[in-house]
Amino acid sequence: MGERMRGTVCLVTGGGQGIGQAIAARLHAEGARVAIADRDLERARDAAAALDGAIAVELDVADLDAHASALDEVERRLGVVGVLVNNAGVGPHSALLDVTPDLWDTVHSVNLRGAFFLLQAVARRMVAHGIAGSIVNVTSVVADRVWMPSTAYAASKRALATVTEYAAAELGPHGIRVNNLCPGPTDTPLSAPRYQDPAFREAMVARLPLGRVGTPGDLAEAALFLASESSAFTTGSTLYVEGGRRVG
User: N or C: fewer beta carbons within 10 Å in the chain?
Assistant: First the structure.
């Protein structure tokens, strides 16, 4: 057990599985008071049950009306959020010619619209309570490097990266840091349908200088850095955890 996050209230969206679950566990191991938010409440409860004192909160980030009640619940049970990890996301991949308005809206309602307005809601509360907190937006390397048919997904993640930069500039005077955590190919339940194809996986690994796919634990270590005072002089930045995909 470490001490870097001792007593800090951390809200991790999409925390019921994959990268979000690993981040929640890592923050908890450093002493954080963790709220795991997920649209699947049972999944959130299972993840929270493994972490002494953690709580589960039902939250579909695309439902903007649910943000305030979810934050109220976290405050009532743990305290005011000092760290937000905006991890919840959806990733249906579709060729450009096959993208429909419904698919576009589904992706952007979670990955961009929901993430932005949750960031805004949390930041307002941080400012009101004088909390010099940290916000970590989980983006994706496909926003920087064209790879697989991912137009709608990549556009949402690139836009979120821009939100991070503007938020960092506006919230910095309040002591609030905002950074991007940018994963590359990572073994998660979301990626499993593609990565279980041996030919796809082999081709993907061949393009990674480090020669392997990432793990949720790789991302969790990076998230801890951005969430904690270890990155006290870092804001508006992107931390790439992608095995060298951008240079491979």
Answer: N
In sequence order, what are the beta bridge partners of 186? 214
Catalytic residue among 153, 166, 195, 240: 153
pLDDT in tens, 161-216: 999 999 999 999 999 999 999 999 898 887 767 778 888 888 888 888 999 989 99
Q: What is the DSSP string of the chain?
A: ---TTTT-EEEEETTTSHHHHHHHHHHHHTT-EEEEEESSHHHHHHHHHTSTT-EEEE--TT-GGGHHHHHHHHHHHT-S-SEEEE---------GGG--HHHHHHHHIIIIIIHHHHHHHHHHHHHHHT---EEEEE--GGGTS--SS-HHHHHHHHHHHHHHHHHHHHHGGGT-EEEEEEE-SB--TTTHHHHTSHHHHHHHHHT-TT-S-B-HHHHHHHHHHHHSGGGTT--S-EEEESTTTTT-
Strand partners, 11: 35, 84
CA dihedral 101, 14, 177, 9 (to 10 degrees): 150
pTM for the structure as a whole? 0.95
From the list 158, 68, 75, the residue with the least C-alpha distance to 120 is 68
Q: Indicate which residue of 157, 166, 195, 240 is catalytic.
A: 157
Q: Active-site residue 153, yes or no?
A: yes
157 is catalytic: yes
Angstrom distances, CA of residue 190 to CA of 14, 91, 130, 161, 210: 11, 7, 36, 20, 22
